[in-house]
């Protein structure tokens, strides 16, 4: 089931999002295998810990969104953010920050916090993007322009391709 907060937000923005119910999955790769959607169309969402100077005196977090067929290039993202150091955030931080189960992060989580979202431009090549909804059994299918609108993300280039086409 799509979380109520997200469903309310989707209704407010008048975005056409197709809800997709599927078996329980924990990774973007499993989501592709279960739904038959190409990895290039699946939005992989990663919580990244950012050490200053980007985040003043204390560490901050950002959400990086990229195609499941790609890998996060921390060095590229570090340059974009002008950060001292980046690392993948611990799942416990994710649970605490967004009040969700570890692994259920969604590109739309930032709508309920002050966490910036960065979307890799490669993801926008897909005609439709499938993203997790904050549940292990429900996802959303959206057009790229609607995906950007709902996530509130900034576009950048920070992914490198590592997995061939499905």
Automatic annotation (TrEMBL):
InterPro entries: YbaK/aa-tRNA-synt-asso_dom_sf, YbaK/aa-tRNA-synth-assoc-dom. CDD domains: YbaK_like. Signal peptide: none annotated. This is YbaK/aminoacyl-tRNA synthetase-associated domain-containing protein. GO terms for molecular function: aminoacyl-tRNA deacylase activity. The lineage of its organism: Bacteria, Candidatus Uhriibacteriota. It comes from Candidatus Uhrbacteria bacterium RIFCSPLOWO2_02_FULL_48_12. Transmembrane segments: none annotated. Residues 22-149 form the YbaK/aminoacyl-tRNA synthetase-associated domain.
């Amino acid at each position: 089931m799509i979380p109520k907060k997200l469903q309310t937000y989707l209704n407010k923005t008048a975005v056409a999002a197709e809800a997709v119910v599927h078996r329980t999955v924990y990774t973007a790769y499993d989501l592709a295998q279960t739904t038959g959607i190409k990895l290039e169309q699946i939005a992989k969402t990663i919580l990244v810990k950012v050490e200053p100077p980007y985040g003043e005196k204390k560490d901050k977090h950002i959400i990086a969104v990229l195609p499941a067929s790609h890998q996060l290039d921390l060095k590229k993202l570090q340059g974009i953010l002008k950060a001292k150091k980046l690392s993948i955030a611990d799942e416990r931080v994710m649970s605490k920050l967004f009040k969700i189960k570890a692994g259920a992060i969604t590109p739309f989580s930032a709508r309920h916090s002050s966490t910036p979202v960065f979307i890799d431009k490669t993801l926008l090549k897909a005609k439709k993007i499938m993203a997790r909804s904050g549940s292990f059994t429900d996802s959303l299918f959206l057009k790229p322009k609607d995906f950007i609108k709902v996530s509130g993300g900034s576009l950048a280039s920070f992914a490198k391709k590592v997995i061939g086409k499905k």
